[in-house]
Every structure is written in C-alpha cells, then in structure tokens.
TrEMBL record:
Membership in a protein family: Belongs to the ABC-4 integral membrane protein family.
Compartments reported by the entry: Cell membrane
GO cellular component, one term: plasma membrane
Transmembrane segments: 336-361, 392-413, 433-454, 482-502, 746-768, 803-823, 835-856
Any one GO molecular-function label of the UniProt entry: transmembrane transporter activity
Entry protein name: ABC efflux pump, inner membrane subunit
Chain ranges of the ABC3 transporter permease C-terminal domain: 343-457, 751-864
Matching InterPro entries: ABC3_permease_C, ADOP, MacB_PCD, Macrolide_Exporter_MacB, Perm_prefix_1
Membrane protein topology class: Multi-pass membrane protein
Record keywords: Cell membrane, Membrane, Transmembrane, Transmembrane helix
Amino acid sequence: MFLNDMLFRLRALFRRNAGDRELDDELRFHLERQTAKYVKSGMSEAEAARRARLEFGGLDQVKEECHEARGISFIETLLQDTRYAIRTLLRAPAFTACAVLTLALGIGANTAIFSVVNSVLLNPLGYPDPQELLAARQNEALANLADMQRQTHAFSSSGGVNINPMDFTGQGEPVRIHAAFVDAGLFPTLGVQPMLGRWISPDEDVKGGPRNAVVSYAFWRDFLGSDPHVLGKTIGLGGSSYAVIGVMPKDFTLPKELADVFLSLWVAYPEAAPERGVHFLHTYWRLKPGVTIQQAQAEITQADHRLAEAFPDTEKERGTVLVPLHESLVGDVRPALLVLFGAVGLVLLIACANFAMLLMARAVSRQRELMIRASLGARNSRLIRQRLTESTLLALVGGAAGLVVAKLGATVLLAMKPAALRHFGAIHMDARVFLFVFAVSLLTGLVFGLMPAWSSSRGDISEALRENARTATASRSPLRSFLVTAELALALILLAGAGLLIKGFLRLRSVDPGFNPSNVMTMYLQLPGTRYPKIPSQNVFRRELLARINAFPGVEAAMITDLPLAGNYVAHRVVVNGQPAPALGAEPMVQVLSVMGNYFGVMQTPLRAGRDFTPTDREGQPRVAIVNQAFVRQLLPGQDPIGTRINWARADDPNDWFTIVGVVGDVKHDGLNQPVDPAMYSPFSQNDEAWRKWMTLVIRTRVPAAALVEDVKKQVWSLDSQIPVSSIQSMDDLLAVSVAQERFNMLLLGMFAALAVALAGVGIYGMVAYRVNQRTHEIGVYIALGAQHRDVLRLVMKDGVKLALIGIGCGLAGAAALTRLMVSLLFEVKPTDPVTLIGVALLLAAVAMLACYIPARRALGIHPMTALRHE
C-alpha cells in the first residue's frame, strides 16, 4: 500500500509539472527502499542497486517524460529517446550483441546478393543511350551483316565481333591474348570513344588494309607500360606487326566477351571474312530515335527472307531475333539470381523473427519498469515510441554491421563467380546498395519492433507492480508461437530448395562424360598463319610435337584434338551416301573434330564397333571417319554404319567421301546437362581446312601432370619459340568449370539454407529456454510432487514440438508451391521430389527436437527448493 500511495503522489506531482528535484527525491526514496529489500534477500549491494534501477528505468527517463509534459519539441524528445535507448542497450550488452549479430547476418546476406543483382540486373550498361542497343540471339556471317545493313532503315548503325586467341610476341615468353576481330561499325554502334587515338575506319576495314590495332586499357597498362606515346608503335600479333592507333577507356568492355586487342576482321582473318556460311559474329544494332524494337524486328525478318531466297544453301531456315542488349546479357543468369535473392529474403525474415522474439523477451523483463512509467502518467504512444526507438536503433546498428558482412560475402561471391557472370565487373556497393541497407534496416526496426512494443505497453499496472508478481502468464505469447512456426516453415522452404539443387548437382556430376578425366593434362596452342599457311607445314609441326611428347618417360599417351567441353569444335552439314538428298540448307548438322594421335586411347572413350585410326590414315589415302553412337541413332537408324560413306553438304569435291571405319561412345562436348549431338572424328592429316590452326595438346600421364608442364613448353618452343602455350589445366578442372554455374547455385542456396536452419534452431531454443525460465516455480512444484524425468521433458518439450510440427507442415506446403520457380535450375529432379522433401523435413525436425531438448534437459536439474524461492 505504501508503494501505491507513493506512486499516486508521484503521478500528482507529474501532472502538476513538478520540479525535477522533488521528483528525484521521491524516486530515490523508493529506489533505496527497493535496494534494501534486495540486499536483505542475499544480493550484493551493487547488484541490488543495479536491479532496482533497471526495474524503474532510471531517474533520467522519468525526468525526460516530465520535460515532454512541459512542452519539449518532438525533435528534442526523439533525441532524448535515442540517448536513453543507447544507455539502455549498453546496460544489456548480451541482448544488444545477440540482436545486432542476428540482424547483421540477415541484412548482410541480403546486401551481398543485392549487390550482385544491382550490378548485373539493375545498373545501366556502360554505353551511351543503352536503351537503343539491341543484340542478335544467334551469330551471323559478315557478308549477311553487310546485306542487312543495306536492306534495313531502322538502325543508325550495326557491327559485329568475333573473339579469337592470338599470340603476342616481342616481350620475352610468347603470351596468348584475346583478339577481337571486328568490323568498322562496331565501335560507332557501341558509341564509346577511345581514350587515346581513334577507331578503325571503314577505309581500313578492307581486305589487304593496313594492319592497325586498337588495344584495351589493361593491355596498354600491362604490356605497353601505360606509354602515353604509344600511338604509331608496332606490336607483334599472330606473327605479324600491327600499328597501335587507339587505346580504349579503362572501364570499356565488349558486351559479352573480354578482349585485349581489336583488329579488322578483313585484315586479321581474311579467309573467313567473305564466307557467307561462316556464322561466327556476335552482332549489335543501334536503333534510330523513335524506332521501336518491333519495327526493327520486322525489317530484319524481311531481310532474312530475302537472304534465304538468294542463298538457300547457307541461309535457309535461319532467323535473326533481336533483343535489348541488357536482356541478352542477363537472360541466362536472371532466373538464378532472382531465386537466390528470394531465398536470401527468406533468411532475412527468419532473422527478423528472431529479432522480434528477442525484443519480446526483453519487453517482458522490463514490464515492471514500463508499468511504473505508465503509472507516472506516461502515455502508451510515448512508451511505444521509446521501444520503437530502441528497436530501430538496434536495426540500424545491425544494418551497419551487415555492410561488413556483405563486403566479406561479396568477396566470396566474386571468388565463386561462374562463367555466366564473367563479363560483369566487380561487385560494387554504390548509393543504391547503401539505400537498400538503410531501408531494410529501418523497416526491420519499425515493423518487427512494433508488435513487441505494443504488447509491452499494455498490461495491468497493479499486477506488474506487485512485489512478487509472476511472469509466467507472459510466457504463452501467441505472437511468439507464430514467429517460431514461421521461422521453421521458411527454413524448410530454403532447405527444400537447397536439397533439390544438391540432388540435381549430384546427378549432373554422375553423368558419364564419355571419357576418363583422371591424369589428363591439356594445353592450348595456335599456329601463326604467317608461318603455317598450308596444311602440310601444320601437320609437320603436329607430328613432330607428338613424337617428342610421347617419348617422355612419364607420358602414357598424347594426342592433338578439339577438346570436349571446351566448345571449340566445328559444325558441318553432311549428306549420307545412299540416302535421299535432303532439301538445300536442311541437311543434318554434325560436330566435326579433327584428331592426331591416339585420341580414343588418351580419352579412354570406348570403341563400340569397327577400328581406330591407324598411321596409314594420312594424306593421299582414302578419307576415313569415326562417328559416335548419336550419329548412328539419328542418321543411320537400323543400319550397319561401318563402310557407310558421308560427305560435307555442297563439298568442293563431291566424289571425295569419308568412309566410316568405327563407332565410339558418346562424348559430352557441349556440357554434362546437354544432349549429345551427332559427331564425327577425322584425322588432321586428311582435312582440307588450312584455317583450322588451333589445337589442344592432351597428355595422359603416369606421373603428376604439373611435373611435365615446363618440359612440354620447352619442346613446343624448341620447334617454334613464338608459339604461346596457354590454358594449361587438367581435364578434371575443365570438367569442374563446365558445372561451375550449377555449383555456384547449389553452394549459395545451401549456405542460405544452413544459416536459416541455424537461426530457426536458435529461435525455437530461445522460446523453450525462455518458457523454462518463466515456469521455474511451476516445474519445481511439479518435481516436488514426484514427477519423473520423462514427465518433465514432456511438459517442457510439448509446446516446442507442437510448433515444430506445425511449422514443418506449413513449410512442406510452401516448398511444394515455391520450388516450382526453380525448375530451370534443376537437372533431372522434379520440384516436388518426395524423397528430398521428406528428407529435409526429417532433418529440420531433428534440429527442432534438439533445440527443444537442450533447455528441457536443463529443466531436469531444477531443485524444488530453489524453484520455490524463484521470484
């Protein structure tokens, strides 16, 4: 009664705008009395004083509420709330650290992925007026591009580019670089001016034109020493000298490729430039102002029809599809990024649910303080605003910590970056990213702090002020139960997505590539056209190199070929002797790989029928070929392929046929997740393609491959010191690169799922532990009445297990619906795969049971006498 009388007096003082000194005296009187009671109960004086002050919120906050009643401005009050929130949070370091860490993980993961989404999907392209730029979905021939330019009027300019490896010499060891063979319209179409010098002009972009080169900023910096007087100087490329006429800006890159130098296609690759059927250019188009993409597409379609009528042998059934340049760049990665962004959003929701539960637990522990402040006349709106100030401050600090996590996460993402993202630069944290972090932090603090603040501002003052009030009534909060259930449901959705990706990836890696990658080393070589213009000189180099490499003690076998999974084979249309002639331009397309040496022995690809190549299959002898099983299935169904003759469609010599002498197993040339196309292998010595100067040296070793690299280089340079040896990698590494995108998706979603499960486990653990603490008196009575351990476990765990089962059930329903959005990312796995869904449900149930069991196990150690003295 004395306490209530005192509080009514204080309320009266407050309403009369009492002075600070009077208020301090009254509150100090009560604090001293409460401190004395705590000391009497066995506490130390320091601990008793600290607990009494925490219960009543300190003198300063009550004084600030008096100031508000006297007309202090909103801004000043907000500053007072902020100062008080800082003091309060500093007095509870464990709570503050847990809340900040929880939000830092959730906001940091979201920020890292948003940085990627921002860089890839949202940032504008680095070209003037990028909305006017279009790209063609398929490659085009240079002759076709010129015809289209003449026949259309919707475009202000257009251009094409093809990337080829080239050797750079003249500065020590020869180096392989990436050369962009371009037409004169490319740079005007992209609209980027050189940093130094000029572009290649139309007058120079002709057969026999001057050998001029525009170099990239990186090439100028790394190989030319950032020489400001570089214009006019010559560099050695592909065995020829080129004059440098321009240097591109630092931030310039081609839309889809990386290039070191830019050369005229007519000058650097005159063999391919006039060929109508060589569709090897990536083409880009700039719309005239006011022209729509639909109008441009209609003109291009008409041009396609005219080309098909004029050149049916090479252009029939071809169609050019134009898309916005940005769409062509991000189309392949957009689904994966959006799925990952959605997944990390679920992680943030789980972190926010944990944050809300921390605030609720904190509110219950401060209920007495808040009710006393309410009894002093503080309005509910003021109490709610104070709690929102604390939660928002915590969220903003968590967001700041999340920026650090995001920076580390962005570094990891760059290290994991798959080939599909290689043409995008570094992941930058620009103003949009900082605004995203601020908005997410602010919304998190306001939205997830509102409900705990509202709940804590309501209650029975007299009940809260009772000296021995039990807080067990607050332990059963519907909001807390909802948050735990939601956490588990969201975690299961993420687990299901990660499980599906893991299962799909494992199936992808179990696909038989058609060869044995173990103990196989590969190196890329390209013969300079100036020194090896004809087939005989090319074959002499290949034979001599193989003879030297095969003589090494640690080499089991070596060969030269177009490498599987590298994408550098040539495709040809073919005709089969004895079959009806297909329509012109509709002949079947096959992959054509030239080989020299023991190809099938080195790759350990099984021979299914017929024979392997022999030394007699060389120049001047009847041409032979070995085909894969897909060739037989699709082009020779029901026939004995051995002895069948095939030839190129529209061959220069229609009587010079290839005879099939063998059939080998299928090899995955385009990727493990791609179907096998018909393929044929023919000896390098019998091909008539002098322009096929590239090759991959493949060596199966009996010793560690790294020990042979320098010896192999020496043998290459002993034959020709100007040929660079590049792309040195094992076949295992090449196989890993081919599934890098799938591994990236799986690892990232798996990490998010693991984080979500950990947060959900912490959430349900915290809820059960909190309830154990609130029900200590009840549990002690239960034990004193003779309850067995299993009874106590059942009592403590039943609520947590019930919520876990509800959350898992809701999560299964959500996973069945949302994982359908991942269908494009899965390989031979259905989005509703029952084994995966059941497996992740059992895993999450085990985590939830463990999280419930740990605090329940601790409850078994409660001594009845200690429990009866609780509170």
